[in-house]
Amino acid sequence: MTYQAFYRVYRPQSFREMSGQTHVKRTLQNALLANKTTHAYLFSGPRGTGKTSTAKIFAKALNCEKAPSGEPCNECPTCLSITEGSHPDVIEFDAASNSRVEEMRDIIEKVRFAPANARFKVYIIDEVHMLSTSAFNALLKTLEEPPPHAVFILATTEPHKLPATIISRCQRFDFKRLSSNDILERMKVVLEDIDLPYEEQALKVIAQAAAGGMRDALSLLDQVVSFSGETLTLENALLVSGSISQDIFYEVVESLKAKEIAKVLTAIEELIADGKDPLRLAEDLITFFRDLLLLQTSSELTELLELVSPEDKFIQLAHDFSADTLYGYIDILSKTQQEMRFSHHTKIYLETALLKMAQVPNSGAVSVQAQMGSLAIDPDMSEKVANLEKMVQQLTMQLQNGIQAQGNGGVQQKEAPRPRAKSNNFNAPIGRIREVLKSATKQDIHNIKNAWAQSLSQLQKSQAALLAEAEPVAASSSAFVIKFKYDIHCRMVAENREFTSLFAQSLSQMTGTMYEVLCIPENDWMTLRQNFIKENGLNQKKGTSDEGAEVGGDDHEEPFIEDGPEIASEDPLITEAEKMFGKDFVEVVED
């Protein structure tokens, strides 16, 4: 008889022999015992996790002559023929090779025929995601309402490629990656069966290289057994799997800790020259630092270690790094690993990552405590702390005696905060407007008002509408202030630098002066104006309105605000109306 690979010889033949997948085994066994099996199942998960093996075991349990039972007997003719793959009522269909709709129609036509010598006709469709759209459509109706004697088991590694209509008609079971312990135990069974001595660490290396797949682990074990002599050793496992021993990683990390980057890069160069893949090196380094974190966290996590054995030197190495440093190393390597997948220069990426790691500061817990101790005994620091304590005691006494309250009162009288006009929607340039008020003149505001109506007429209607409810209220030789009735209009004009510049140029053509435009809402203007009058001690001028005020100084004898009825008559719009209709027919109404 020809030689068969381990993964074929040691394929589980019952639920009891399956490794892991407890949630799948228990659900299927309970359904078998209660005779509540359904017509369609979907087994999804990574490769080598037992999907096809579970499908065959389930088919045997359905058709076993000793059913209903939670396990196939593997003794009756039906179980034996299914195990051999010769039973006519258990059909295995490879969708990767037969993805066309014609092959699927051939299956569908034969579904309606009763099984030859079994209770159920079981169709196991492997890699079902490879079926074409037409094949899925042909299968859809049969999958929803098959004959009572038909059971479909769909297996796939990529369930996201299946149509939602197919998934919704199946009971879905998600197979998980097998743990290292499950793979380790299965390999021990195989090696004990062939009576081959082995080293425990060698099996851990193989389990770690398998990445959760039992078939990959058994295939790799088959290679190592063929390469080895009388004993399966760690050295042989490392050589065949392409992995690296923990001692080499120990030396690399020791050099990294000592900031001896030349030794680190030389070691990596030698490993790559020996045929090690840089991407695999990055992955193994991540696993190594992860094991160091576990050793640092707790001594009870040794069973979870993958690359490192719980020896004293590794425990000491784990405590030589702070947790933050190890997290930083893992983060750098993880990002580098993602970049390496899309590049042909993987070696350069790995060397760059190691250079970054050498620059990460290592502030271990011991060194931090030492630093704290040195700070505690520093005489200068002790003196500063004593002085601070004295100051706190003095301030506490002042508060108790009421000195602090008097001091605060004096400060408030000396530096009284200025009331600040502030709008809910727009913050006016209060400081700049105050400067304008200090140097405001009657002649400048007259010039602005005389040119106001003509300048508005030169604007677009949408722009002029923003200034319809606005008016100039104060002006100096370089700037003037516009008061707005509505805050939203004020904000729109103030924030439109292009518009304010255009309007200032229009005014300059008539006044001969290029003024800066300052905007303020009406409520804010009234508050600011009253505060300015109070702060500067200005007296109201007789004969003017309540809003008129004189500004002190030789050049500021004229009022900076003209809202009174006498000045209102000088408004160019009112003057023009009086010319057209006569003064007797024009009445000025104040809002």
Automatic annotation (TrEMBL):
Database matches in InterPro entries: AAA+_ATPase (IPR003593), ClpA/B (IPR001270), DNA_pol3_clamp-load_cplx_C (IPR008921), DNA_pol_III_gamma-3 (IPR022754), DNA_pol_III_sug/sutau_N (IPR012763), DNA_Rep/Repair_Clamp_Loader (IPR050238), HLD_clamp_pol_III_gamma_tau (IPR045085), P-loop_NTPase (IPR027417)
Keyword Cell inner membrane: no
Molecular function terms, GO-annotated: DNA-directed DNA polymerase activity
Chain intervals with Acidic residues compositional bias: 555-569
This protein's record includes keyword Cell membrane: no
Keyword tags: ATP-binding, DNA replication, DNA-directed DNA polymerase, Metal-binding, Nucleotide-binding, Nucleotidyltransferase, Transferase, Zinc
Catalysed transformations (reactions): DNA(n) + a 2'-deoxyribonucleoside 5'-triphosphate = DNA(n+1) + diphosphate
Domain of life: Bacteria
Residues of the AAA+ ATPase domain: 37-179
Stretch list, region Disordered: 406-427, 538-571
Enzyme nomenclature, EC number: 2.7.7.7
SUPFAM superfamilies to which the protein is assigned, alphabetical: P-loop containing nucleoside triphosphate hydrolases, post-AAA+ oligomerization domain-like
Enzyme class label: transferase
UniProt record similarity statement: Belongs to the DnaX/STICHEL family.
Name this polypeptide is given: DNA-directed DNA polymerase
UniProt lineage: Bacteria, Bacillati, Bacillota, Bacilli, Bacillales
